[in-house]
Write a structure and sequence with these properties.
- The chain is an alpha/beta fold.
- The protein has 18 helices and 12 strands.
- Strand 2 and strand 3 (about 65-70) form a beta hairpin.
């Protein structure tokens, strides 16, 4: 009897051990399925920010843009080694790690440094490039700023979230540090005397110096280990098999010494861009941005009006089950920045549904506009005398017909100027969608600035386009307002 119990106990322990091993194997399989998932899709989706030559930027080929640069060549080689196609997703540098974390991309590449803080939320490949650190200064200040020590007490700029920003905080303790999202913005600030120097990687500094005679490069003199500091590729936390495949490609690239060739190829593309830096040469970029801006604005205005009317009717309803959700929605939307809303729609909902960047931008701008349109329409409805409603009921009209034929037409006539201002605001505020890679006017503006090394001219062009859009819309709205008054 005792022996049977011992056997039963042994069987139980053995079964439990096998069960736990099975769970462990299952977790391991899940953890290592990232590479297999990419191969099954047949596509390697890579997030990048193409405004950082020579790492990644866009070349103007026959008025068509194409992502090029050292990082793009590395991504192409990885896709080739995995036997899949390469798909690039362009967005702001600050959104790259979020893209892999939320599954919007399989990997992110863009001169990303694998800091201990980032490694807590992402898996990184080996360092694939470490080109050294430099500062860009104005050529006129070259005698004044010769090294890191001479920047003490000066204003120094770096890109937000970059390795250069962390190095500056650690080494330039006596300098006044500032960060910006875009390297072209930093260069413009430098050239307009807002900054004394800009910290960038050496290849980036060399590219700017070659293409901008007003700039000069100086060494950073940072004491860093090239083995520990450099650019790596980011993956979703736990995607070890995909990172392992990337490491194999990186080892292959280093063994065959392909990096110098990639940089040389990027330099040739830069010469193509800077051969003709006139804004007319880049008209297709601005035209494509204009189309995206108009599409987002028109759809957001239409959707905002429809949803705004529904919210307004819910808000003035006597039933709390209808009014409270509308009140809460309006307060939340008006109390948070649109940029946060855009990121939430694209990345937050993206965890559940893979929403394309353009669609996410349209949804976010529509939902934002609806909250303001709701308040405008509610104010218009309240501005109509109560006697109007009483008169319609005495004529036997239902409440729905009363609103449709009497109240809302008068309300729209009263709120038309305010509604017109909201339309204009939508056109201008829709530019925020560029942070998730929607190729609107502002996105194309940054691309042209990075490609041509011209800081002001693209801004002027986009400003003129926005002005013409809002000017023509204002004239049209004023014409319709006059017709309403005449009627």
């Amino acid at each position: 009897m005792k022996g049977n119990k011992i056997k039963a106990f042994k069987c139980l322990v053995l079964g439990l051990a096998m069960f736990l091993l099975g769970i462990g194997a299952n977790f391991t399989a899940k953890a290592d399925s990232s590479l297999q998932a990419v191969k099954e899709k047949g596509v390697l989706t890579v997030a990048t920010s193409p405004d950082y030559p020579p790492f990644e930027f866009q070349v103007n080929k026959n008025s068509h843009s194409e992502d090029v640069g050292m990082d793009i060549e590395i991504a192409k080689q990885m896709a080739k080694d995995m036997g899949v196609k390469l798909k690039l997703k362009n967005m702001d540098f600050s959104s790259l790690l979020v893209a892999v974390e939320t599954g919007k991309a399989d990997m992110a590449i863009g001169g990303i440094n694998p800091t201990p803080e980032r490694e807590q939320n992402a898996t990184f490949s080996k360092i694939y490039y470490s080109g050294g650190q430099s500062f860009l200064v104005k050529k006129a200040d070259a005698d004044k700023f010769k090294n890191q020590a001479s920047l003490s007490g000066q204003k120094v700029g770096t890109q937000t979230g970059s390795m250069q920003s962390q190095l500056a905080q650690k080494n330039l303790t006596n300098s006044k540090l500032t960060t910006m999202d875009k390297t072209p913005d930093l260069i413009l600030a430098l050239k307009t005397n807002k900054l004394s120097a800009v910290g960038v990687e050496k290849p980036v500094a060399e590219a700017y110096v070659k293409n901008d005679s007003e700039l000069k490069m100086i060494n950073s003199d940072y004491k860093i280990d090239k083995k520990d500091v450099g650019a790596a590729i980011a993956f979703k936390k736990g995607n070890d098999s995909l990172a392992g495949a990337a490491n194999q490609t990186i080892d292959k690239i280093h063994k065959q010494d392909k990096i110098p060739g990639y940089i040389e190829k990027a330099g040739k593309y830069l010469k193509v861009n800077t051969a003709n830096t006139s804004m007319l040469h880049y008209w297709k970029f601005f035209f494509n941005g204009l189309k995206a801006t108009l599409l987002i604005s028109v759809l957001a205005v239409i959707g905002g009006i429809i949803l705004g009317i529904i919210l307004a009717l819910m808000k003035i309803s006597k039933f709390k089950i209808l009014s409270w959700p509308a009140i809460s929605y309006v307060e939340v939307v008006r109390g948070t920045p649109m940029m946060v809303q855009v990121l939430l729609i694209y990345f937050g909902l993206g965890v559940l549904i893979n929403i394309p960047a353009l669609l996410a931008g349209i949804i976010a701008v529509t939902l934002n506009s609806a909250a303001y349109v709701c308040e405008i329409i509610r104010g218009g409805i309240n501005s109509v005398e109560k006697g109007q409603g009483e008169a319609t009921r005495s004529l036997g009209l239902s409440q729905v017909d009363s609103f449709r034929y009497v109240i809302l037409p008068q309300a729209f006539k009263n709120i038309w100027p305010a509604l017109g201002n909201e339309f204009i605001s939508v056109i201008k505020e829709s530019s925020i969608v560029s942070i998730i890679g929607v190729t609107d006017l502002v996105y194309e503006l940054n691309v042209v600035r990075a490609d041509t090394y011209r800081g002001v001219a693209p801004i002027v062009v986009v400003m003129v386009i926005y002005f013409l859009l809002t000017f023509l819309l204002t004239r049209g709205l004023n014409y319709l307002e006059g017709k309403m008054k005449h009627d």
